[in-house]
Automatic annotation (TrEMBL):
GO terms for biological process, alphabetical: L-proline biosynthetic process
Protein name, as recorded: Pyrroline-5-carboxylate reductase
Residue ranges annotated for the Pyrroline-5-carboxylate reductase catalytic N-terminal domain, each copy included: 14-101
Chemical reaction(s) catalysed: L-proline + NADP(+) = (S)-1-pyrroline-5-carboxylate + NADPH + 2 H(+); L-proline + NAD(+) = (S)-1-pyrroline-5-carboxylate + NADH + 2 H(+)
Taxonomic lineage of the native organism: Bacteria, Pseudomonadati, Pseudomonadota, Alphaproteobacteria, Sphingomonadales
Gene of this entry: proC
């Protein structure tokens, strides 16, 4: 891993540094971001060594801090609590970054009209180990080289032309790890139900999902082609696939899961806007 964030220059303020923003910050610091360039405002988060830490935005301002990059890392429901105070300092050369589910670029432009650019980033928790994927889209005069340098240590980057698909992507890749963890949990629980010990079942399930996804990513083959390499005609795998594929129920279930998560993003945007 490179020990520099390359073209990413300037000072960063994180407003909210919980599970997701904290994972991003830890990865950035591990990738060489100078902690002296970072300030965090969060009433409960654990301060990171070398970063300036404040409980409230007023404390940050009282300490005469400045930022070139401000990232919203609290919950969408908390946008109204911070937007007024933040808008006053998010002008001129400031990039306003948001990882908030649901909140659109248009909403950000209304809240932070003076920012140089509004940038919507949808990361996921695997950013903590550099194996995440970040979808990104922006409006205004965004420095895309700097944004790419910032997101690169977190994993893959997918640039979207606008945020029309961002609520679906939030469900797909943002919530996605939780859905995958739940699938692994169910796989392990089924193994346990059929006789494995709990520890063995989780260890075997984790290795099976990890190995299969690594092979899929590295081989360049389609999932169906790899299924065919596992399933012998009339063999054990086919007996299981006959259940899994029955009536297209698995795809129907996943469609319902993603639809519910996507639509909740729209509701969160309404709450953040104060329309609920
Ligand atoms: N957790 C995840 O995997 C992902 C989360 N997101 C987005 O990231 C954001 C944060 O989610 P999580 O990290 O899961 O939540 P979290 O609850 O772990 O973190 C939120 C943090 O915001 C802080 N906070 C609350 N009010 C504040 C205020 N007025 N000023 C400053 N900080 C304040 C809290 O103390 C907390 O540490 C959300 O908007 C969510 O939509 C996006 C993609 C993935
Ligand atoms: O559950 C949530 O609302 C956030 C957004 C994507 C992942 N976590």
């Amino acid at each position: 891993m490179t020990k520099t964030l390359g073209k990413f220059a300037g000072r960063m303020l994180l407003v909210g540094c919980g599970n997701m923003a904290g994972a991003m910050l830890d990865r950035w610091l591990a990738a060489g971001l100078d902690p002296a360039r970072v300030a965090v405002v969060d009433p409960v988060a654990e301060p990171r060594e070398g970063t300036a830490h404040f409980t409230t935005l007023a404390d940050w301002q009282a300490a005469d801090q400045s930022a070139d990059w401000i990232m919203l890392g609290m919950k969408p429901q908390q946008l109204g609590d911070v937007a007024g105070e933040l808008a006053a300092v998010a002008g001129g050369a400031v990039h306003l970054l948001s990882i908030l589910a649901g909140v659109s670029l248009a909403d950000l432009a209304v809240r932070f009209p003076e920012a140089r650019a509004q940038v919507r980033i949808l990361p996921n928790l695997a950013a903590r180990i550099g194996a995440g994927v970040s979808a990104v889209t922006s409006t205004g005069d965004a420095d895309s080289a700097a944004i790419e340098a910032l997101l690169k240590p977190l994993g893959e980057i997918v640039a979207l032309p606008d945020d029309g698909m961002m609520d679906l992507v939030t469900a797909f890749t943002g919530s996605g790890p939780a859905f995958v963890f739940r699938l692994i949990e169910a796989y392990a629980a089924a193994g346990e139900r059929l006789g494995l010990s709990g520890d063995d079942a989780l260890k075997l399930a984790t290795a099976t999902f990890g190995g299969a996804t690594a092979l899929l990513a590295r081989s360049g083959e389609k999932p169906g082609a790899l299924v065919a390499q596992v399933a012998s005609k009339g063999g054990t795998t086919q007996a299981g696939l006959d259940i899994l594929d029955e009536g297209g129920e698995l795809v129907a279930l996943m469609t319902n899961v993603l639809r519910a998560a996507r639509d909740r993003g729209r509701e969160l945007a309404d709450i953040a806007r104060g329309d609920d």
